[in-house]
Design brief:
By secondary structure, this protein is α/β, with parallel strands linked by helices. It has 14 helices and twelve strands. Strand 9, helix 9 and strand 10 form a beta-alpha-beta unit.
Amino acid sequence: MSILEMFFAFIAVVITATLVLKNQQNLVLLNVLLIFEWVLLFSHFFVDGWRWPMMFMYMTAIVHLVIIVRLAIAHKPIVKRKSRTISIVSLLIVGIALPSYLFPWNTHSQPTGSYDVGTMTFPIVDEERMEKWTEDNVPRKLVVQLWYPTDATTGLKRAKQHDTPSIFMKDFGQENGIPGFLLQSFVNQKTYAYEEAELSNEENEYPIVLFSHGFGSSRIQSQFQVIELASHGYIVMGIDHTYYSSGTVFPNGEHIEPASIQFSEDMSVMDEYVREWSADARATMDWIEKVNQDGDVNGNEEDTWLHQLKGNIDLERVGYMGHSFGGATAGHTLATDDRFHAGINLDGFPYGEAHLVGVKQPFLTMMTDRDLLEEYLQETDEEYKQELYSRIEIISDEIISLDGALHMDFSDFPLLSPLTSWIGMTGEVPAKEQHQKINELTVDFFQNSFNDN
């Protein structure tokens, strides 16, 4: 719960207790408390925005208003039985505590690195490719988000999980078959990244790591990891793979919904998708090189934020990591583009040609708990399982099976609700504990890989 929500809930409990504990005749006190309650309610709407887990509390405020107005008119108590006291207060406490526990408000851990973190979002247009998921003859375009080291955050706002929450909720809900409103608390929460902060000038050059999301997900899906990396002195660039991603909104307001693209048992189909995502990564890398050289994609001298990146990206320390299908993309991209110097596959089946071409750069695979994976794949074709393990072993320098982890533990998803663990979508190890392990492995891997270059 936010601070305003906690104050709002406290006043609601006080009013309820006053009504049921024989103090209903003290109308002056009740009116003061009621005014305070509604001031907090409107402040919460204005600052935090409404949240469906707080719906019970909103209804409670309305009930308080009706009861106290009636008391003022009738000058008689509404609640006469002492036996109702415990039940009413208990119901109120449950109405406050249960939704807040099941759908918490602030769930991110503060990053452990020495830098604060800034974030910016940009469009990228790949003039070399025409978009195949639309009938319009337009070039392929992407939305990318940067997380980067900063030391100037005074007066700046902390960024939300997604900059267009309602659109993300709609897209992600439809894409994954869940009610989008369940994501409201999660996607509206504040992260530990500050909007439009200046790039720190502490270092002359910063290593850069690209990030690719899972199939149908979004660039914002693993902020526990990208923000942690940025706090340790990395520039991280998350890619929305347009038409495969949820909540893709360009700076001009254009919204591109996910296309009806389904996973296929035909590996040749999935390989083709990996090639397209890898082409997105190469286009992003081209953009990075242009910005590092000119400070702007158009080579002009305007005073834009991108000019801070000019000459400040270390192109000899470029990494790529991805979750699920994004992990497959990372492996394929390293195998086919030597501009990338290290990579991490976060629990992805290695589609593409990486196992055929070979990955010469340092490459780490973090995967689901091996025992849990065997249990999950027990009804899967044995040939498929052997192909999975074989490809991972071929492309990886190191393979780490994370104790107690399931597939979605490699994302922010377990921060949504403890329900994800109860229904078996995420593992039983607490999300923040699992994320800490993943972050330690991630930071150590890139530091060791780049120091060896």
